[in-house]
Structures are given as C-alpha cells and as structure tokens.
C-alpha cells in the first residue's frame, strides 16, 4: 500500500518557511513515484498556540494523531516569548518519548559544490551516520533544587540509562554499520570523567559488538571525538551516542559538511507501533526568520527519509528517497543556493529548483 497519512507540524520560526518547500518536493515525489500522501495540517505544537492557550498542545493530541503514519515536523522554539524547556518538553520531546522514537538517525555528508569549512576536504570525504539515543540518558526532568534562592542553593539533575534503552540503540547502530560499505561503528563515551553511566555504556557496547563480528568498532571520549570530527572526519562511518552527546555531535557533523541547514533527521520507532517523526536538525532560527532565506534542504532531505521509512526501505519509497537525494545534489552542484551556502537564493527558489530537478529525472 503506497498511501500514507502525514501530520504536518511546521512549529515556529523557519519551521514555517522550510516545511512548505518540503511539501512541494514531497508532492512532486508522490506524483512521480505513485505514493499518495494525505496531509493533516496542525497548528498546535507551536509557541503561537501556547501564547493563545497556555499549552503547547491540546489535551487530546495523542488521539488526534492516532491514525497518522508519520509526523513531518519543522522546528519548535521562540525563546523571546516562551522558555525553551517549556516549548520543547511540551512538544518535540514529548513526541519522542511518548511515541518511543528511540532512534534519532542523523546523516552528515559532504556534497559536491558545498563550501567545506575544513581545509582540503572534497565531496565524499565525509559520510557519516550519527545514531543518537532519543528517549532517555541525560534528557530527563528528574531532579530538584534545594535551598532555592539562597547562597546554599543546590541543583541536581539525574541521567537515566536503562539496559533496554542502551542495548536497542547500540544494536541499531551495529545493524546500520553492517549494511554500509565501511562497516565501522564509533561509540561516543566519556568513561574517564562520567564515572557511573559511561563505563557501563562502554561495557554494553563491547557486549553488543560481539554479536557483530563483521563490524569493526572503537570507542572515543566525546571531547577527543569532537576534535577528530574537525581534524579527521573521514575516519567516521556510524557514530552511536547518548542523547546529549548525540545532540552535540549532530550539530558539529553537519557544520563540518558546510552548514546545519542541510542536516536531516529521522526520529524512529523502528517497530512502527507509533508514528515516527521527521524533521531538520536545525531549530527555528529566530535570527533569520521572516526573510525567506533559510535553507530548506534539511527539511526536504528529512521528507526523503520519511518516504524511505514509510516504504520500508524498498519499492517506491526507496526510489523516491534516492531521486530526491539526486535532485538535492544536482542543485547543490550547479543550482541556486541560500546564504548559508554562500548564495543569494530564497528558501522558495531552492525548493522550486529541487522540485524541478526531481521532475527532470522523470523526463
Ligand atoms: P538554530 O538551529 O535554530 O540556529 C542556529 C544557527 O544556525 C542560527 O544562526 C541559524 O540562523 C542557523 N540556521 C539554522 N537553520 C538554518 C537553515 N535552515 N538555513 C540557514 N541557517 C540556519 O539553533 P538555536 O538558535 O540554538 O535555537 C533557536 C530555537 O530553536 C530555540 O528555541 C531552540 O530551542 C529551538 N530548537 C528547536 C529544534 C527542533 O525543534 N528540533 C532544534 C534546535 C533548536
Ligand atoms: C535537536 C534539538 C533538540 C534536542 C532541542 C530543541 C530540545 O536540539 O533536535 O537536536 O536537544 O534534541
Ligand atoms: Mn540539537
């Protein structure tokens, strides 16, 4: 069945500018590859909605999303009017946790025609897949404050690592590596300083690795790993990390490939018990919102990842994904480009160019 219902949540800021370009490309891909997409447009999960109602989402948000196959998401956050922990814990982080989207897949690739901030790197030199744990770890609301407002103020925040949660993300990373040419996993760690969870995480990784004799692996302290992202990015294939480490390196990786504006992500519930969520890695970018200059490629590539996931990695979904990637690469090489890529094109012009490049492949 190639017919899917998608909840479309633009959110805030440039989320509202890049999502329409993503839909433009998805629509074209749907026509070309025989995939029917029915959209449910949603205005909640935004700071505007919060300012009107005092909530980020309606109480029945789960029921409203009960029959969607996936969520196509822009970005949430408008820190000028709503504190980030309120807007994000009230929307995106709730989706990830309640829908058990425990894998956050974040590829970073250096493409032809994209100015690379690292010296001496050419297209193809950087091709990594960050696999971020997405439901636990350092991201918790567990903790508290004592002696608040006094000199003796104490703030505690717990991290939570479960064997189930850690093993499943490690297993996913090794499975991904097994399907890739280089078959290598780097495990991000910090077992020298974070003395309880990280040595344990290393132990889980070592045990998981035994089940994948065909995959080579190493572990690197997160500080050294960040330095190597910049100095030797070609070393990395699959990188698996806890929630916070994965967050940090999934901005750093794309920055090394030119711009955060390119980076896509797939928040997956691989068992498909709940809808998965597809969104660019970047946020609402208040500094550039309203000018129609944001790069829509992160959103467009995320849409491609969505079609691939919905098509279960084969058939029309896979072909549509691959064709969108080809179109993106064509435009990056010799098409219009937004400011973050050194050009002057608008968000709309980029989206139109990618849709046209997709169309051209069919003719
Ligand atoms: P950001 O990703 O929004 O912006 C960081 C920098 O990258 C800015 O200078 C911005 O202009 C630039 N940038 C981001 N996307 C771009 C694009 N597509 N094209 C060109 N330039 C782009 O991060 P931030 O400034 O830390 O966060 C702003 C708000 O977004 C905050 O409220 C934050 O919590 C939220 N946020 C949301 C998400 C999400 O919903 N997934 C992700 C990150 C940040
Ligand atoms: C991301 C974002 C979110 C995260 C924020 C907005 C809570 O930075 O998707 O990478 O930290 O996961
Ligand atoms: Mn982030």
TrEMBL record:
Recorded superkingdom: Bacteria
Keyword Manganese found: yes
GO molecular function, one term: NAD binding
EC top class named in words: oxidoreductase
Residues of the Isopropylmalate dehydrogenase-like domain: 5-354
PROSITE patterns documented for this protein: IDH_IMDH (PS00470)
Pfam families (alphabetical): Iso_dh
InterPro entries the UniProt entry points to: ICDH/IPMDH, IsoCit/isopropylmalate_DH_CS, IsoPropMal-DH-like_dom, TTC_DH
Needed co-factor(s): Mg(2+); Mn(2+)
Gene3D superfamilies membership: Isopropylmalate Dehydrogenase
Keywords from the UniProt entry: Manganese, Metal-binding, NAD, Oxidoreductase
Keyword check for RNA-binding: no
Catalysed reaction, written as an equation: (R)-malate + NAD(+) = pyruvate + CO2 + NADH
E.C. number: 1.1.1.83
Family membership noted in the UniProt record: Belongs to the isocitrate and isopropylmalate dehydrogenases family.
Entries under PANTHER family matching the protein: D-MALATE DEHYDROGENASE [DECARBOXYLATING]
Protein name as annotated: D-malate dehydrogenase (decarboxylating)
Species assigned in the record: Denitromonas iodatirespirans
């Amino acid at each position: 069945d190639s017919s899917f219902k998608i909840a479309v949540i633009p959110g805030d800021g440039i989320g509202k500018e890049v999502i329409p370009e993503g839909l433009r490309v998805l629509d074209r891909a749907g026509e070309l590859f025989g995939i029917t997409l029915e959209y449910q447009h949603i205005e909640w999960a935004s700071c505007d909605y919060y300012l009107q109602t005092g909530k980020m989402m309606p109480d029945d948000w789960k029921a409203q999303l009960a029959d969607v196959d996936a969520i196509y998401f822009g970005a949430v956050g408008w820190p000028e009017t709503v504190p980030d922990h309120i807007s994000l814990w009230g929307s995106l982080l709730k989706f990830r946790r309640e829908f058990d989207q425990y894998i956050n897949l974040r590829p970073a690739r250096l493409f032809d025609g994209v100015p690379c901030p690292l010296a001496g790197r050419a297209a193809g030199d950087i091709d990594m897949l960050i696999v971020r744990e997405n439901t636990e770890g350092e991201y918790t609301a567990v903790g508290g404050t004592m002696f608040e407002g006094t000199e003796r103020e104490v703030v505690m925040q717990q991290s939570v690592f479960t064997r189930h949660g850690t093993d499943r993300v490690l297993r996913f990373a090794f499975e991904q590596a097994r399907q890739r040419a280089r078959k290598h996993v780097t495990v991000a760690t910090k077992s020298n300083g974070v003395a309880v969870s990280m040595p344990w995480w290393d132990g889980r990784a070592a045990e998981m690795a035994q089940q994948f004799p065909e995959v080579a692996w190493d572990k690197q302290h997160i500080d050294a790993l960040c330095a190597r992202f910049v100095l030797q990015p070609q070393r990395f294939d699959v990188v698996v990390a806890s929630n916070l480490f994965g967050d940090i390196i999934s901005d750093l990786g794309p920055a090394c490939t030119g711009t955060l504006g390119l980076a896509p992500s797939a928040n997956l519930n691989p068992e498909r018990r709940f809808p998965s969520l597809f969104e660019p890695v970047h946020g609402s970018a208040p500094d550039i919102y309203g000018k129609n200059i944001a790069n829509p490629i992160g959103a467009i590539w995320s849409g491609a990842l969505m079609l691939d996931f919905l098509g279960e990695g084969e058939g029309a979904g896979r072909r549509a994904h691959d064709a969108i990637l080809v179109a993106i690469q064509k435009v990056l090489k010799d098409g219009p480009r937004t400011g973050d890529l050194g050009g002057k094109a608008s968000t709309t012009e980029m989206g139109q160019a990618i849709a046209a490049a997709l169309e051209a492949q069919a003719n």
